[in-house]
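Query protein
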Amino acid sequence: MKIDLSQTHDIKGAFQSINWKEIQEKYTDDATKYCFDVLNSKTQAGYLTKLACFRNLCDLRRQNTPDFPYHYDLKEVQMTFKFASIVPDVDLHKPLPLMGWQKFILAMINGWKDANGERRFTDIHISVGRGQGKTQIAGIQMCKAVLIDTLNFTNKDFLITANTSDQSTKLFGYVKKMLESVISIEPFKQLAESAGLDLQTNQLIEKKTNNKVWKISYEADKYDSTHNVLAIYDETGALNTYDRISDITDGQGQVVPYHQFIKISSAYPDPTSPFHQEQITMQHIMEKDYDREGDNSLCLVWAQDDLDETLKPETWEKSNPLIGLSDKERQRRTENLVKQRNQAMLTNTLHKFQNKNLNCWLKQSTASFLNLKDVEDAVDDDFKIDGRQVYIGFDYSMFSDNTSIGFVCPYKDEKTGEPRWHIAQHSFIPWQQAGSIEAKEKQDGIAYREYPKYCTITAHQQGIINPEQVYNWLLDYVQKHKLKVVFFGYDRYGSYQVKNITESLNANTDWLIQDIAQRTSTLANPTKFLQESFATGKITHFNDPILEKALLNAVIKEDKIGIQVDKDKATLKIDAVDALVDAMYQAMYHFENYGVTNDKSHEVERMTQQQVLDWFNNPESGLLLLGDDYYSD
């Protein structure tokens, strides 16, 4: 059965359309029961949690098939639960019964295996609100990996890391306390003694097997020397680039018996964080269940579905699953969270409460050009651009900044007939100042080479923008998609290369070309129009990570004359937004009587020299009666 939730998001309908009797009878473990409780609305959960539960149940149905060579190991799951039951809570110093959602996490990490009996999930993304014990779960998994999963193996590394030394020390301390308690009982006491387990200040080492648990912070930059069976990264959401993360994963490739990388975090103010981008990518993968992409990636998220739920405490179990522990705990935790929310509202720090406690991603700065939800809601990958009228904006740069071409296609909604604008971009990426394309990607926090559909790495051998490459790409793109170019707007303060490109376009096309002053008085209207169109749902765009990052990087710069977009720092790229604002300079008037496609006084401006001569030499032609031979909508 082909299941696609990317448009409907109707998990309930998809779940109810399938007969689950066989799965319910065969799998009675607490993790599977949790999935059914969530999807049957017995346990309150948000959309992403429901999506992960639905994915798991679908996987149980398709396991051990040619297209899905994985299986759910019930014996491994039960053994994991048994081990977790003896690991103490680090604050209360005693084991606590695990809730269904916690068992679900552990079962997904440990229970799914491939045909060789190795762990299916190698890349694991876990996100839940603050104070919900996500670090406790990570600690349990690390203890299990050290004491059980690598029994009889030698020279194995395990990594505990975070952004700062203090953060990595906290998680390391959790694991150390857990191990101290576990190895005080049999059979783990004997196992630890036979391996020569030594719990040191900055590392845990088995002297006889040479297995080691390392504590390294991101700021130390020493990941390239590790080859880890299990690596756990705490507070990953704070990273604005994964440039050093690859050093961890690259070293895991040949690790035996298995390798896993677990990233855990709550939400952070910057929605362009790679951790959040992963979450979005995995959501799309889980929604298109039939595509079978991302089978080795696990995404488990407990979060509110909407910022409006900030005022609905009865929904907070979605991001704070410990609320469901008991009626007493529900009341205590909810009252405490309400107090924190009210205090945050008084001190104008509500965004922090929404980030950490409700696990919602948003842009912290009040000067932000757009908010995350409006950008995400505008995605429409099914839009057909071919044959459309298009307004083009051009932002050129030689060295550090990208060169971007923005496209705005006006259209009308098929159902309502209301005006809409679909935006797209293509960027050209220089790398001279960064030194290499690898360094450029790390600097900007964008893996440009993974998105050839939305960007082109400069072909210039010195890493600067190649204007001929830009010019040829633009003409090829317009021709390939049969675009009807209404307007081409560009930054008049660009380099001499811009002049060469625009003069070539003037000579070889019949486009209406205009230079646009980059000052607030000129850019205020198109900037505000683009911003308001996002807020009112009049904008659509492709699922383009480069465009999304640019839209969320942009902030508003305001003076006495007007507004325009700007950026907080040099490495935050907004070139695609600048290009779109130039295109919107005329595109926003497309449906008005005075728009360039409707105002007949502009027709001569849009005519080629030959068309002007033909019109002038034809006494029967009137300026207001020009036909499709001269200009076509």
Remarks:
- The longest strand covers residues 419-429.
